[in-house]
Design a protein that fits this description.
The chain has 259 residues and is α/β, with parallel strands linked by helices. The chain has nine helices and eight strands. Strand 3, helix 3 and strand 4 form a beta-alpha-beta unit. The N and C termini lie close together (7 Å).
Length: 259
């Protein structure tokens, strides 16, 4: 069995096919999906989907790419959701220094405020860390949270080790299946297995085997996991068992539903 620790089930690319997406994932052995939000405007959609489909778990947060339109009351709304709806994590939050004309000060403000909420509610966080690993690590050292997942990790081994020291697992997905991603594949092969969780970031980050133009889906996670097994020279079953336990360890609310 597998857990997809990052799936945007409410994304427009899925249209009204969420029932099929969840059903096909379960048929492939993917029994839990973590569904992060990206802005206050989709908190409700994420909550309703997770209520509708067993095995789907919500996370609430403001994504760094949405901070340009965020205002202080959205943090109040997030606090209310955390009080009332008991998510598996706060997320997707973090920093993105790749997008054009990014506002670093604004991104860091909303990131820091959400880390404080994670600390106050004793919740793990789902981190977006594109080209911002060191700055995120700086804030994590200043505001202690209970760990979480460094989503779509693509940093150095030294940075990976620092996230692990702070109680984080590292998310690996479709990017790892591309043969040209040599540094990422080396990390996947050599990091401690207990530090790795699996994710799709569906409908984004398509794996190498997916036909161009098709949305990524959680049903592909076992094939992604097979790449990890081959890189590490172990069985697919070992990867399934280890990454499932890792996911439940770092996101304890995932244990609340049967596999």
């Amino acid at each position: 069995m597998f857990i997809d620790t990052h799936c945007h089930l409410d994304a427009a690319e899925f249209g009204n096919t969420q029932a099929d997406v969840v059903r096909n994932a379960a048929a492939a052995g993917v029994t839990r999906l973590v569904v992060p939000s990206v802005a206050s405007s989709n908190f409700k959609a994420v909550r309703e989907l997770c209520k509708q489909y067993p095995g789907c778990f919500p996370a609430y947060g403001i994504h760094p790419m949405y901070t340009d339109s965020a205002v202080p009351r959205h943090l109040d709304e997030l606090r209310d959701y955390l009080k009332q709806h008991k998510p598996v994590a706060i997320g997707e939050i973090g920093l993105d220094f790749f997008i054009p004309h990014y506002d670093q000060i604004r991104q860091e403000h909303f990131f820091v405020e959400q880390l404080k909420l994670a600390r106050d509610f004793d919740l793990p966080v789902l981190l977006h860390i594109r080209r911002a690993q060191d700055t995120i690590l700086k804030h994590l050292r200043q505001i202690k949270v209970r760990g979480g997942i460094a989503h779509a990790f693509n940093g150095s081994r030294q940075q990976a080790d620092e996230f692990i020291k702070l109680g984080f697992k590292l998310g690996f997905g479709g990017a790892m299946t591309h043969s040209r991603a040599t540094k990422l594949r080396e990390l996947a092969a050599t990091l401690p297995l207990e530090s790795i969780v699996l994710e799709t970031d569906a409908p984004d980050i398509p794996p190498d085997f997916l036909e161009r133009g098709l949305p990524n889906e959680p049903k592909y996670l076992p094939r992604i996991a097979q790449t990890l097994a081959e890189l590490r020279g172990v069985s697919l079953n070992e990867i399934a068992l280890a990454t499932t336990e890792n996911s439940m360890s770092v996101l304890p609310a995932l244990r609340s539903a049967p596999l």
